[in-house]
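Dear H.,

Thanks for agreeing to be a second pair of eyes. The structure we're designing against is below in token form, covering all 376 positions.
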């Protein structure tokens, strides 16, 4: 299966792409879908809009599958992860003294919106997941009777720490605490199951591990929470009977479409549909297995270099596709710039070098990084 997909990855031969935790390259079929959509728009405009709507439904079906969500009615398409987090934060009714528990490793999107609730008397508490061998315990130690929600990234963007979602979900469920997961660093990289982890909300933009474009995010919300969230955005697209433009009375859609206020991002839908078709064809179990092999290979290389320090936890279940390392004697920002100049697409995070291959990355390309590191 993976051999069959090899032709999908057409990166420039001089480029080694280890930044899937940043913005990913597109598979060939995604580029083709966008080209075809552009040509169609040029020649026929929206004549085939009914087919576009079918494509939208197909994408919702793929999103359901990748999340193992009960129904496509639980899936909304939003602009990005940050928008979805804002829909949750400003849709919940807060009272003075409520608190939200998270970690101190979150990407700004999963911190700023919660901090913005301070004006309503809501406290944002940040646990340090690095202090215990069980990062979840650090979260739980900050929970008290005022805790309404735990919000975390499934995989931390800078350290690569993978959280035990099932344990957190069970904890939340047993205490009637809501559970919100920023899954952008794991959807498309790892298998996912919203039911198994007892998630109330899950969000992820498509431009990282899902190999899609920026600007189209998947948002999952349980039916119960869908009914409880106050809507903050309104428009023609979020109502029942949406194509009846003459009707004056309206009710918000019963499905997660209630979060989609206006015209869909049809270009993004065509692109992400193509990208997810590739992931689902390969199978998420296969992708997870192949990606973890790459991660473990990188761990081995780092361990064999005395001057390199591994920042990402390497104990089983604690890593996904992100591997962050630091040189112990040289300037890491300098090394990062050196790698980039030598066509290694990587990132500088947490004062270290973040490498994020995907399931299809050839191992020889990983070796090249370490050859270069020696010459730096
Ligand atoms: C954990 C995490 N959340 C969110 C984002 C980006 O959010 P958005 O989709 O709003 O751009 C990133 C991007 O690096 C991220 O790593």
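And this is the sequence the design step returned. I haven't edited it by hand at all.
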């Amino acid at each position: 299966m993976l051999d069959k997909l090899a032709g999908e990855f057409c990166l420039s031969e001089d480029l080694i792409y280890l930044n899937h935790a940043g913005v990913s390259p597109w598979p060939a079929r995604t580029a083709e879908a966008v080209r075809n959509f552009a040509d169609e728009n040029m020649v026929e405009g929206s004549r085939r809009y009914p087919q576009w709507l079918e494509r939208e439904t197909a994408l919702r079906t793929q999103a359901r599958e990748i999340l193992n969500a009960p129904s496509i009615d639980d899936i909304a398409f939003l602009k990005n992860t940050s928008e979805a987090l804002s829909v949750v934060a400003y849709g919940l009714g807060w009272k003075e003294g409520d608190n939200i528990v998270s970690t101190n490793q979150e990407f700004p999107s999963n911190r700023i919106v919660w901090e913005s609730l301070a004006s309503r008397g809501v406290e944002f508490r940040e646990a340090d997941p690095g202090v215990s061998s069980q990062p979840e315990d650090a979260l739980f130690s900050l929970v008290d009777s005022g805790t309404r929600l735990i919000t975390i990234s499934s995989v931390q963007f800078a350290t690569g720490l993978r959280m035990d979602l099932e344990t957190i979900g069970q904890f939340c469920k047993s205490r009637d605490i809501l559970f919100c997961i920023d899954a952008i660093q794991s959807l498309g990289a790892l298998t996912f199951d919203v039911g198994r982890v007892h998630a109330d909300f899950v969000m992820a933009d498509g431009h990282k591990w899902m190999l899609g474009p920026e600007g189209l995010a998947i948002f999952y919300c349980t039916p119960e929470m869908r009914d409880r969230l106050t809507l903050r955005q309104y428009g023609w697209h979020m109502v029942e009977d949406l194509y009846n433009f003459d009707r004056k009375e309206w009710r918000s859609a019963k499905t997660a479409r209630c979060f989609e206020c206006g015209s869909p991002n049809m270009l993004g839908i065509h692109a992400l549909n193509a990208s997810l078709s590739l992931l689902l064809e390969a199978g998420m179990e296969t992708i997870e297995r192949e990606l973890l092999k790459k991660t473990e290979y990188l761990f081995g290389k780092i361990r064999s270099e005395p001057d390199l320090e591994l920042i990402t936890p390497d104990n089983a279940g604690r890593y996904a596709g992100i591997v962050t390392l630091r040189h112990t004697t040289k300037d890491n920002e300098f090394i990062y710039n050196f790698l980039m100049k030598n066509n290694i697409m990587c990132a500088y995070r947490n004062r270290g070098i973040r490498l994020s291959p995907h399931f299809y990355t050839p191992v020889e390309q990983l070796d090249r990084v370490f050859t270069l590191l020696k010459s730096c």
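Two observations from my side: The longest helix spans residues 284-303. Residues 80-82, 107, 109-110, 153, 157, 182, 184-185, 205, 217 surround pyridoxal-5'-phosphate (CB under 6 Å).

Warmly,
E.
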